Amino acid sequence: MIIGKLIQSLTVLVIYPHDHPDIAFNECLTQNYLGTYGTQSVFVPPESCANSFAPTADVPVINVHSDAQLVWVERAALEQHLTDYPFSSQSLELYLGPISSAYSSSYSFNENSQKHLSDPVGKHILHHTSTSALLALSPARIKELSFTLPPTWRVYVLPSAPFPFLPVPEPAIARVRDILSSLKFDPEVARIISDISLPQIRNDIRFLTGEDGKSGIESRHSFSSDAKVAAEWLKVRFEETGARCELRAFLTGFAPNVVCRYPSTENTTETVLISAHYDSRGSFGSTRAPGGNDDGSGTTGLLAIARTIKRQGVTFRSNVELVAFAGEEQGLLVPDTMRCVGTAQRDKNLTLMVQADMIAYHEPGEPPQLGLPAIIGTAEVTQLVANISAIYSPELVVGFTPACCSDHQASPTPPIFHSQTNQMLIYHSHDQSFHHQGFPATQVFERAGPIADPMYHNSGDISERTGYDFEQLKSIAKVQFATLLHVAGFDLS
Ligand SMILES: *[C@@H]1O[C@H](CO)[C@@H](O)[C@H](O)[C@H]1NC(C)=O
Ligand SMILES: *[C@@H]1O[C@H](CO)[C@@H](O)[C@H](O)[C@H]1NC(C)=O
Ligand SMILES: [Zn+2]
Protein backbone atom coordinates (compact mmCIF):
# COMPACT_ATOMS: atom_id res chain seq x y z
CA MET A 1 0.00 0.00 0.00
CA ILE A 2 2.74 2.38 0.93
CA ILE A 3 4.75 1.37 -2.08
CA GLY A 4 1.80 1.96 -4.35
CA LYS A 5 1.37 5.40 -2.96
CA LEU A 6 5.00 6.20 -3.37
CA ILE A 7 5.12 5.07 -6.94
CA GLN A 8 2.01 7.01 -7.75
CA SER A 9 3.75 10.17 -6.75
CA LEU A 10 6.93 9.47 -8.65
CA THR A 11 7.76 11.78 -11.46
CA VAL A 12 9.89 10.87 -14.43
CA LEU A 13 12.59 13.28 -15.47
CA VAL A 14 14.40 13.16 -18.77
CA ILE A 15 17.66 14.98 -19.41
CA TYR A 16 18.76 15.78 -22.95
CA PRO A 17 21.74 17.61 -24.38
CA HIS A 18 20.25 21.07 -25.00
CA ASP A 19 20.70 20.83 -28.77
CA HIS A 20 19.46 17.26 -29.17
CA PRO A 21 17.61 17.10 -32.50
CA ASP A 22 14.75 14.95 -31.15
CA ILE A 23 13.51 17.57 -28.70
CA ALA A 24 11.70 19.83 -31.14
CA PHE A 25 9.63 16.96 -32.58
CA ASN A 26 8.45 15.40 -29.36
CA GLU A 27 5.45 16.98 -27.68
CA CYS A 28 6.05 14.90 -24.58
CA LEU A 29 9.13 17.05 -24.24
CA THR A 30 8.24 20.40 -25.73
CA GLN A 31 5.14 20.74 -23.58
CA ASN A 32 6.91 19.64 -20.39
CA TYR A 33 10.13 21.59 -20.16
CA LEU A 34 11.90 22.38 -16.89
CA GLY A 35 14.70 24.52 -18.24
CA THR A 36 18.20 24.33 -19.66
CA TYR A 37 21.10 24.20 -17.23
CA GLY A 38 24.64 24.34 -18.47
CA THR A 39 24.36 22.31 -21.65
CA GLN A 40 21.53 20.05 -20.51
CA SER A 41 17.78 20.42 -20.86
CA VAL A 42 15.44 18.85 -18.32
CA PHE A 43 11.93 17.61 -19.12
CA VAL A 44 9.19 16.08 -17.06
CA PRO A 45 6.99 14.09 -19.46
CA PRO A 46 3.58 13.04 -18.10
CA GLU A 47 2.90 9.45 -17.20
CA SER A 48 1.20 8.80 -20.52
CA CYS A 49 4.51 9.53 -22.25
CA ALA A 50 6.74 7.65 -19.86
CA ASN A 51 6.98 4.50 -21.94
CA SER A 52 8.46 6.34 -24.88
CA PHE A 53 11.63 7.14 -22.96
CA ALA A 54 14.16 4.39 -22.75
CA PRO A 55 17.21 5.51 -20.86
CA THR A 56 20.47 5.67 -22.82
CA ALA A 57 23.92 6.80 -21.79
CA ASP A 58 23.12 10.13 -23.43
CA VAL A 59 19.64 10.57 -22.10
CA PRO A 60 19.11 9.45 -18.54
CA VAL A 61 15.62 8.86 -17.25
CA ILE A 62 15.17 9.42 -13.55
CA ASN A 63 12.31 8.78 -11.20
CA VAL A 64 11.86 11.13 -8.32
CA HIS A 65 9.25 11.73 -5.70
CA SER A 66 7.15 14.65 -6.79
CA ASP A 67 7.49 16.52 -3.47
CA ALA A 68 11.22 16.88 -3.84
CA GLN A 69 12.59 20.23 -4.82
CA LEU A 70 14.91 19.77 -7.78
CA VAL A 71 18.15 21.69 -7.86
CA TRP A 72 20.74 21.82 -10.62
CA VAL A 73 24.33 22.41 -9.57
CA GLU A 74 26.79 23.39 -12.28
CA ARG A 75 30.49 23.79 -11.81
CA ALA A 76 31.58 27.07 -13.41
CA ALA A 77 33.98 26.88 -16.37
CA LEU A 78 37.21 28.08 -14.74
CA GLU A 79 40.75 28.36 -16.10
CA GLN A 80 42.72 25.38 -14.89
CA HIS A 81 45.10 27.34 -12.72
CA LEU A 82 42.27 28.64 -10.55
CA THR A 83 41.67 26.49 -7.52
CA ASP A 84 38.29 24.86 -7.28
CA TYR A 85 36.56 22.39 -5.03
CA PRO A 86 36.46 18.74 -6.09
CA PHE A 87 33.15 18.09 -7.78
CA SER A 88 32.51 14.50 -6.79
CA SER A 89 29.29 13.02 -5.51
CA GLN A 90 31.05 12.42 -2.20
CA SER A 91 32.01 16.06 -1.83
CA LEU A 92 28.56 17.17 -2.88
CA GLU A 93 27.00 14.98 -0.20
CA LEU A 94 29.51 16.33 2.28
CA TYR A 95 28.60 19.95 1.57
CA LEU A 96 24.92 19.18 1.61
CA GLY A 97 25.28 17.62 5.02
CA PRO A 98 23.01 15.14 6.73
CA ILE A 99 19.65 14.76 5.11
CA SER A 100 16.85 15.73 7.43
CA SER A 101 15.19 12.62 8.81
CA ALA A 102 11.75 14.04 8.21
CA TYR A 103 12.48 14.22 4.56
CA SER A 104 14.61 11.18 3.99
CA SER A 105 11.74 8.85 3.22
CA SER A 106 9.81 11.22 1.05
CA TYR A 107 11.56 10.56 -2.18
CA SER A 108 13.10 7.49 -3.68
CA PHE A 109 14.08 5.86 -6.92
CA ASN A 110 12.48 2.81 -8.32
CA GLU A 111 14.63 -0.19 -8.95
CA ASN A 112 14.64 0.20 -12.69
CA SER A 113 15.86 3.73 -12.83
CA GLN A 114 18.49 3.20 -10.21
CA LYS A 115 20.44 0.75 -12.26
CA HIS A 116 20.73 3.25 -15.10
CA LEU A 117 22.40 5.83 -12.95
CA SER A 118 26.08 5.53 -13.57
CA ASP A 119 27.71 7.40 -10.73
CA PRO A 120 27.49 6.34 -7.13
CA VAL A 121 24.17 7.87 -6.32
CA GLY A 122 23.85 9.45 -2.95
CA LYS A 123 20.80 10.36 -1.02
CA HIS A 124 20.44 13.73 -2.66
CA ILE A 125 21.94 13.13 -6.06
CA LEU A 126 19.75 12.01 -8.94
CA HIS A 127 22.24 12.54 -11.72
CA HIS A 128 25.88 13.49 -11.76
CA THR A 129 28.48 14.32 -14.40
CA SER A 130 31.96 15.82 -14.04
CA THR A 131 30.52 19.34 -14.19
CA SER A 132 26.91 19.11 -13.08
CA ALA A 133 24.54 17.37 -10.70
CA LEU A 134 20.80 17.19 -10.30
CA LEU A 135 19.68 17.05 -6.69
CA ALA A 136 16.40 16.36 -4.95
CA LEU A 137 16.11 18.27 -1.71
CA SER A 138 13.54 19.26 0.79
CA PRO A 139 12.15 22.67 -0.25
CA ALA A 140 13.12 24.01 3.18
CA ARG A 141 16.78 23.56 2.36
CA ILE A 142 16.90 25.65 -0.75
CA LYS A 143 17.72 29.00 0.80
CA GLU A 144 20.84 27.74 2.56
CA LEU A 145 22.44 26.37 -0.60
CA SER A 146 24.24 29.55 -1.54
CA PHE A 147 25.97 29.41 1.86
CA THR A 148 26.73 25.69 1.99
CA LEU A 149 27.92 24.88 -1.52
CA PRO A 150 31.25 26.20 -2.83
CA PRO A 151 30.87 29.65 -4.38
CA THR A 152 32.21 28.49 -7.75
CA TRP A 153 29.30 26.08 -8.15
CA ARG A 154 26.22 27.67 -9.64
CA VAL A 155 22.92 26.63 -8.12
CA TYR A 156 19.65 26.70 -10.03
CA VAL A 157 16.32 25.81 -8.55
CA LEU A 158 14.08 24.08 -11.04
CA PRO A 159 10.46 25.16 -11.33
CA SER A 160 7.99 22.71 -9.85
CA ALA A 161 5.70 22.88 -12.86
CA PRO A 162 6.78 22.49 -16.46
CA PHE A 163 6.31 25.11 -19.14
CA PRO A 164 6.50 24.96 -22.93
CA PHE A 165 9.83 24.81 -24.67
CA LEU A 166 9.76 27.54 -27.27
CA PRO A 167 12.54 27.84 -29.77
CA VAL A 168 13.12 31.34 -31.05
CA PRO A 169 10.62 31.69 -33.90
CA GLU A 170 11.96 32.06 -37.41
CA PRO A 171 10.50 35.58 -37.95
CA ALA A 172 12.32 36.82 -34.85
CA ILE A 173 15.57 35.37 -36.16
CA ALA A 174 14.90 36.77 -39.62
CA ARG A 175 14.55 40.21 -38.05
CA VAL A 176 17.99 39.86 -36.44
CA ARG A 177 19.45 38.60 -39.74
CA ASP A 178 18.06 41.67 -41.50
CA ILE A 179 19.70 43.97 -39.00
CA LEU A 180 22.96 42.07 -39.42
CA SER A 181 22.91 42.18 -43.21
CA SER A 182 22.30 45.92 -43.32
CA LEU A 183 24.82 46.66 -40.57
CA LYS A 184 27.36 49.30 -41.43
CA PHE A 185 29.43 51.85 -39.60
CA ASP A 186 27.32 54.81 -38.48
CA PRO A 187 29.46 57.81 -37.47
CA GLU A 188 26.63 59.09 -35.27
CA VAL A 189 26.56 55.82 -33.30
CA ALA A 190 30.35 55.96 -32.97
CA ARG A 191 30.19 59.51 -31.66
CA ILE A 192 27.44 58.76 -29.13
CA ILE A 193 29.01 55.64 -27.67
CA SER A 194 32.44 57.24 -27.37
CA ASP A 195 30.87 59.70 -24.93
CA ILE A 196 30.63 56.95 -22.25
CA SER A 197 32.52 58.42 -19.32
CA LEU A 198 35.33 56.39 -17.82
CA PRO A 199 35.73 58.60 -14.70
CA GLN A 200 32.00 58.19 -14.08
CA ILE A 201 32.32 54.41 -14.37
CA ARG A 202 35.15 54.47 -11.82
CA ASN A 203 33.01 56.48 -9.41
CA ASP A 204 29.93 54.33 -9.87
CA ILE A 205 31.74 51.06 -9.39
CA ARG A 206 33.41 52.30 -6.22
CA PHE A 207 30.00 53.18 -4.85
CA LEU A 208 28.53 49.77 -5.63
CA THR A 209 31.48 47.83 -4.20
CA GLY A 210 31.74 50.04 -1.12
CA GLU A 211 35.33 50.90 -2.09
CA ASP A 212 34.54 54.61 -1.92
CA GLY A 213 33.88 54.35 1.81
CA LYS A 214 30.75 56.49 1.33
CA SER A 215 28.05 54.12 0.18
CA GLY A 216 28.47 51.84 3.16
CA ILE A 217 27.72 48.87 0.90
CA GLU A 218 29.33 45.71 2.26
CA SER A 219 27.55 43.20 0.11
CA ARG A 220 24.99 42.99 -2.67
CA HIS A 221 24.07 39.41 -1.89
CA SER A 222 20.35 39.12 -2.71
CA PHE A 223 19.50 38.44 0.94
CA SER A 224 21.45 41.45 2.27
CA SER A 225 20.00 44.80 3.26
CA ASP A 226 22.78 46.63 1.41
CA ALA A 227 21.54 45.09 -1.84
CA LYS A 228 18.37 47.11 -1.33
CA VAL A 229 20.46 50.24 -0.83
CA ALA A 230 22.11 49.48 -4.16
CA ALA A 231 18.73 48.89 -5.81
CA GLU A 232 17.33 52.22 -4.60
CA TRP A 233 20.46 54.01 -5.70
CA LEU A 234 20.37 52.42 -9.14
CA LYS A 235 16.70 53.29 -9.55
CA VAL A 236 17.34 56.97 -8.78
CA ARG A 237 20.40 57.09 -11.06
CA PHE A 238 18.50 55.52 -13.96
CA GLU A 239 15.55 57.84 -13.41
CA GLU A 240 17.86 60.83 -13.60
CA THR A 241 18.55 59.78 -17.17
CA GLY A 242 14.89 60.02 -18.16
CA ALA A 243 13.94 56.37 -17.71
CA ARG A 244 10.86 55.26 -15.80
CA CYS A 245 11.91 52.67 -13.26
CA GLU A 246 10.32 50.21 -10.92
CA LEU A 247 11.72 48.06 -8.17
CA ARG A 248 10.13 44.69 -8.74
CA ALA A 249 10.23 42.56 -5.67
CA PHE A 250 9.86 38.91 -6.42
CA LEU A 251 9.98 37.74 -2.84
CA THR A 252 9.85 39.39 0.58
CA GLY A 253 13.30 39.79 2.03
CA PHE A 254 15.12 39.61 -1.26
CA ALA A 255 16.54 42.44 -3.27
CA PRO A 256 14.26 43.52 -6.13
CA ASN A 257 14.95 43.73 -9.85
CA VAL A 258 15.44 47.27 -11.09
CA VAL A 259 13.40 47.55 -14.27
CA CYS A 260 13.68 50.75 -16.30
CA ARG A 261 12.10 51.78 -19.52
CA TYR A 262 12.48 54.43 -22.20
CA PRO A 263 9.30 54.76 -24.25
CA SER A 264 9.41 54.45 -28.02
CA THR A 265 8.94 57.51 -30.23
CA GLU A 266 7.13 55.35 -32.76
CA ASN A 267 3.90 53.44 -32.38
CA THR A 268 5.43 50.01 -31.91
CA THR A 269 5.47 47.15 -29.45
CA GLU A 270 9.05 46.23 -30.37
CA THR A 271 11.30 46.17 -27.36
CA VAL A 272 15.05 45.89 -27.00
CA LEU A 273 16.36 44.74 -23.63
CA ILE A 274 19.83 45.28 -22.23
CA SER A 275 20.67 44.00 -18.80
CA ALA A 276 23.16 43.04 -16.12
CA HIS A 277 22.82 41.74 -12.58
CA TYR A 278 23.67 43.84 -9.56
CA ASP A 279 23.62 41.16 -6.87
CA SER A 280 26.90 39.55 -5.86
CA ARG A 281 28.48 36.69 -4.06
CA GLY A 282 31.46 36.56 -1.68
CA SER A 283 33.69 33.88 -0.20
CA PHE A 284 32.65 31.08 2.12
CA GLY A 285 31.98 32.49 5.57
CA SER A 286 32.52 36.16 4.68
CA THR A 287 29.79 38.78 4.73
CA ARG A 288 31.71 40.99 2.29
CA ALA A 289 30.58 40.59 -1.32
CA PRO A 290 31.69 43.64 -3.31
CA GLY A 291 31.01 42.11 -6.74
CA GLY A 292 33.22 44.64 -8.51
CA ASN A 293 33.51 42.49 -11.58
CA ASP A 294 30.60 40.06 -11.06
CA ASP A 295 28.56 41.91 -11.93
CA GLY A 296 29.33 45.44 -10.80
CA SER A 297 31.07 45.78 -14.16
CA GLY A 298 27.98 44.95 -16.25
CA THR A 299 25.75 47.01 -13.95
CA THR A 300 28.01 50.04 -14.15
CA GLY A 301 28.25 49.61 -17.91
CA LEU A 302 24.46 49.72 -18.05
CA LEU A 303 24.40 52.85 -15.93
CA ALA A 304 27.10 54.44 -18.10
CA ILE A 305 24.92 53.75 -21.16
CA ALA A 306 21.92 55.39 -19.44
CA ARG A 307 23.95 58.44 -18.46
CA THR A 308 25.13 58.80 -22.06
CA ILE A 309 21.57 58.47 -23.37
CA LYS A 310 20.72 61.49 -21.21
CA ARG A 311 23.82 63.55 -22.06
CA GLN A 312 23.41 62.98 -25.78
CA GLY A 313 19.64 63.46 -25.82
CA VAL A 314 19.04 60.05 -27.41
CA THR A 315 15.46 58.95 -28.01
CA PHE A 316 14.60 55.47 -29.29
CA ARG A 317 12.19 54.46 -32.00
CA SER A 318 11.58 51.08 -30.29
CA ASN A 319 10.82 50.59 -26.65
CA VAL A 320 13.96 50.11 -24.62
CA GLU A 321 14.27 48.32 -21.30
CA LEU A 322 17.28 48.42 -19.05
CA VAL A 323 17.16 45.84 -16.30
CA ALA A 324 19.50 45.32 -13.36
CA PHE A 325 18.57 41.88 -12.06
CA ALA A 326 18.95 40.53 -8.56
CA GLY A 327 18.83 36.90 -7.48
CA GLU A 328 21.27 35.90 -10.17
CA GLU A 329 23.92 34.62 -7.83
CA GLN A 330 21.45 33.05 -5.50
CA GLY A 331 20.03 31.05 -8.34
CA LEU A 332 16.66 30.51 -6.84
CA LEU A 333 14.90 33.57 -7.53
CA VAL A 334 15.57 35.48 -10.03
CA PRO A 335 14.96 37.94 -12.57
CA ASP A 336 11.44 38.63 -12.95
CA THR A 337 11.71 38.69 -16.63
CA MET A 338 8.16 37.66 -16.56
CA ARG A 339 7.00 41.15 -15.95
CA CYS A 340 9.80 42.72 -17.84
CA VAL A 341 9.35 40.74 -20.98
CA GLY A 342 6.05 39.88 -19.90
CA THR A 343 3.25 38.06 -18.31
CA ALA A 344 0.48 38.83 -20.61
CA GLN A 345 3.40 39.95 -22.65
CA ARG A 346 4.45 36.61 -23.99
CA ASP A 347 3.26 38.15 -27.19
CA LYS A 348 5.42 41.11 -26.40
CA ASN A 349 7.69 41.84 -29.17
CA LEU A 350 11.18 41.42 -27.78
CA THR A 351 13.54 42.03 -30.66
CA LEU A 352 16.54 40.95 -28.69
CA MET A 353 18.28 40.91 -25.34
CA VAL A 354 21.95 41.42 -24.51
CA GLN A 355 23.07 40.67 -20.97
CA ALA A 356 26.46 41.87 -19.68
CA ASP A 357 27.90 39.66 -16.96
CA MET A 358 31.55 40.08 -15.87
CA ILE A 359 33.12 42.39 -18.42
CA ALA A 360 36.12 43.99 -16.67
CA TYR A 361 38.71 41.28 -16.05
CA HIS A 362 41.29 39.63 -18.26
CA GLU A 363 44.58 38.04 -17.32
CA PRO A 364 47.43 40.53 -16.99
CA GLY A 365 49.32 40.63 -20.30
CA GLU A 366 46.31 39.56 -22.34
CA PRO A 367 44.66 41.99 -24.78
CA PRO A 368 41.20 43.36 -23.99
CA GLN A 369 38.62 40.81 -25.06
CA LEU A 370 34.97 40.16 -25.68
CA GLY A 371 33.72 36.65 -24.92
CA LEU A 372 30.52 35.46 -26.54
CA PRO A 373 28.61 32.33 -25.52
CA ALA A 374 29.83 29.20 -27.28
CA ILE A 375 26.86 27.09 -26.32
CA ILE A 376 23.71 28.87 -25.32
CA GLY A 377 22.27 31.97 -26.89
CA THR A 378 20.88 32.83 -30.29
CA ALA A 379 23.65 32.39 -32.85
CA GLU A 380 22.36 35.28 -34.98
CA VAL A 381 22.36 37.70 -32.05
CA THR A 382 25.84 36.56 -31.09
CA GLN A 383 27.01 37.16 -34.66
CA LEU A 384 25.41 40.60 -34.69
CA VAL A 385 27.20 41.54 -31.47
CA ALA A 386 30.50 40.18 -32.83
CA ASN A 387 30.19 42.26 -35.99
CA ILE A 388 29.21 45.36 -34.04
CA SER A 389 32.27 44.85 -31.85
CA ALA A 390 34.53 44.64 -34.91
CA ILE A 391 33.11 47.95 -36.15
CA TYR A 392 32.95 50.01 -32.95
CA SER A 393 35.41 48.42 -30.51
CA PRO A 394 38.09 46.98 -32.80
CA GLU A 395 40.51 46.93 -29.86
CA LEU A 396 38.60 43.92 -28.46
CA VAL A 397 39.74 40.44 -29.43
CA VAL A 398 36.45 38.61 -29.96
CA GLY A 399 36.08 34.91 -29.24
CA PHE A 400 33.88 32.32 -27.61
CA THR A 401 33.62 31.43 -23.95
CA PRO A 402 32.33 28.28 -22.28
CA ALA A 403 31.55 30.40 -19.20
CA CYS A 404 27.90 30.37 -19.52
CA CYS A 405 24.56 30.98 -18.35
CA SER A 406 23.49 34.23 -16.97
CA ASP A 407 20.21 36.07 -17.13
CA HIS A 408 20.09 35.98 -20.88
CA GLN A 409 18.74 32.56 -20.11
CA ALA A 410 16.20 33.94 -17.74
CA SER A 411 12.76 32.55 -17.58
CA PRO A 412 9.42 34.16 -17.94
CA THR A 413 7.74 31.45 -15.89
CA PRO A 414 5.50 32.56 -13.06
CA PRO A 415 6.18 31.85 -9.40
CA ILE A 416 5.05 28.44 -8.25
CA PHE A 417 2.77 28.16 -5.26
CA HIS A 418 2.37 25.06 -3.18
CA SER A 419 -1.14 23.80 -3.77
CA GLN A 420 -1.93 23.16 -0.11
CA THR A 421 -0.04 25.77 1.88
CA ASN A 422 -0.03 28.43 -0.80
CA GLN A 423 3.58 29.09 0.09
CA MET A 424 5.75 30.26 -2.70
CA LEU A 425 8.08 27.37 -3.39
CA ILE A 426 10.24 28.50 -6.19
CA TYR A 427 10.34 31.60 -8.02
CA HIS A 428 12.04 31.86 -11.30
CA SER A 429 14.97 29.73 -11.91
CA HIS A 430 17.06 32.14 -13.88
CA ASP A 431 18.54 29.62 -16.12
CA GLN A 432 15.54 28.71 -18.18
CA SER A 433 16.83 30.33 -21.19
CA PHE A 434 15.31 33.33 -22.82
CA HIS A 435 16.61 31.55 -25.82
CA HIS A 436 14.24 28.65 -25.22
CA GLN A 437 11.39 31.00 -24.44
CA GLY A 438 11.30 32.34 -27.93
CA PHE A 439 13.40 35.45 -27.38
CA PRO A 440 16.59 36.14 -29.28
CA ALA A 441 19.30 36.66 -26.69
CA THR A 442 23.00 36.62 -26.06
CA GLN A 443 25.55 37.59 -23.45
CA VAL A 444 28.74 39.65 -23.40
CA PHE A 445 31.60 38.41 -21.20
CA GLU A 446 35.14 39.52 -20.47
CA ARG A 447 37.19 36.75 -21.95
CA ALA A 448 37.41 34.53 -24.99
CA GLY A 449 37.86 31.53 -22.73
CA PRO A 450 36.85 30.18 -19.33
CA ILE A 451 36.59 32.36 -16.25
CA ALA A 452 40.09 33.54 -15.27
CA ASP A 453 39.21 36.05 -12.58
CA PRO A 454 40.87 34.79 -9.38
CA MET A 455 38.31 36.83 -7.44
CA TYR A 456 35.31 35.08 -9.04
CA HIS A 457 32.61 34.77 -6.35
CA ASN A 458 35.14 35.99 -3.85
CA SER A 459 35.08 38.72 -1.21
CA GLY A 460 38.15 40.22 -2.91
CA ASP A 461 36.20 41.13 -6.06
CA ILE A 462 36.91 44.86 -5.96
CA SER A 463 37.71 47.18 -8.87
CA GLU A 464 41.13 48.34 -7.72
CA ARG A 465 43.27 45.33 -8.51
CA THR A 466 45.52 43.77 -11.13
CA GLY A 467 43.67 42.56 -14.21
CA TYR A 468 40.59 44.74 -13.64
CA ASP A 469 40.55 46.73 -16.87
CA PHE A 470 38.25 49.76 -16.97
CA GLU A 471 39.09 50.33 -20.63
CA GLN A 472 37.82 46.85 -21.50
CA LEU A 473 34.67 47.46 -19.46
CA LYS A 474 34.08 50.63 -21.48
CA SER A 475 34.82 48.90 -24.79
CA ILE A 476 32.29 46.16 -24.05
CA ALA A 477 29.70 48.67 -22.81
CA LYS A 478 30.18 50.48 -26.15
CA VAL A 479 29.34 47.23 -27.96
CA GLN A 480 26.20 46.72 -25.88
CA PHE A 481 25.20 50.37 -26.45
CA ALA A 482 25.90 50.27 -30.22
CA THR A 483 23.79 47.11 -30.47
CA LEU A 484 20.96 48.90 -28.70
CA LEU A 485 21.22 51.95 -30.98
CA HIS A 486 21.33 49.89 -34.18
CA VAL A 487 18.50 47.57 -33.20
CA ALA A 488 16.13 50.04 -31.52
CA GLY A 489 16.77 52.91 -33.93
CA PHE A 490 17.31 56.38 -32.47
CA ASP A 491 17.08 60.13 -32.90
CA LEU A 492 18.80 62.98 -31.12
CA SER A 493 16.61 65.57 -29.47
C1 LIG B 1 30.14 39.65 -39.91
O1 LIG B 1 31.54 39.61 -39.75
C2 LIG B 1 32.13 38.52 -40.43
C3 LIG B 1 33.58 38.46 -39.99
O2 LIG B 1 34.21 39.69 -40.20
C4 LIG B 1 31.97 38.71 -41.91
O3 LIG B 1 32.55 37.63 -42.62
C5 LIG B 1 30.50 38.77 -42.22
O4 LIG B 1 30.33 39.06 -43.58
C6 LIG B 1 29.81 39.81 -41.38
N1 LIG B 1 28.40 39.65 -41.58
C7 LIG B 1 27.66 40.62 -42.07
C8 LIG B 1 26.26 40.27 -42.36
O5 LIG B 1 28.10 41.74 -42.27
C1 LIG C 1 -0.72 52.12 -33.04
O1 LIG C 1 -0.73 50.92 -33.79
C2 LIG C 1 -1.81 50.08 -33.50
C3 LIG C 1 -1.61 48.75 -34.20
O2 LIG C 1 -1.05 48.92 -35.48
C4 LIG C 1 -3.09 50.77 -33.90
O3 LIG C 1 -4.20 49.96 -33.62
C5 LIG C 1 -3.20 52.08 -33.13
O4 LIG C 1 -4.33 52.79 -33.55
C6 LIG C 1 -1.97 52.92 -33.34
N1 LIG C 1 -2.01 54.07 -32.43
C7 LIG C 1 -1.74 55.30 -32.84
C8 LIG C 1 -1.79 56.37 -31.81
O5 LIG C 1 -1.42 55.56 -34.00
ZN1 LIG D 1 27.39 37.00 -12.72
UniProtKB/TrEMBL annotation:
PANTHER family referenced in this protein's UniProt entry, alphabetically: METALLOPEPTIDASE M28 FAMILY MEMBER, PEPTIDASE M28 DOMAIN-CONTAINING PROTEIN
Tree of life domain: Eukaryota
Assigned keywords, A-Z: Hydrolase, Metal-binding, Protease, Zinc
Entry-linked InterPro entries: M28_fam (IPR045175), Peptidase_M28 (IPR007484)
Keyword check for Hydrolase: yes
Location of the Peptidase M28 domain: 257-465
Protease listed as a keyword: yes
Cofactor: Zn(2+)
Pfam families given in the database record: Peptidase_M28 (PF04389)
Main enzyme class: hydrolase
Gene Ontology terms, MF aspect: metal ion binding; metalloexopeptidase activity
EC number: 3.4.-.-
UniProt record similarity statement: Belongs to the peptidase M28 family. M28B subfamily.
Protein name, UniProt field: Peptide hydrolase
Gene Ontology biological process terms, A to Z: proteolysis
Upper classification of the organism: Eukaryota, Fungi, Dikarya, Basidiomycota, Agaricomycotina
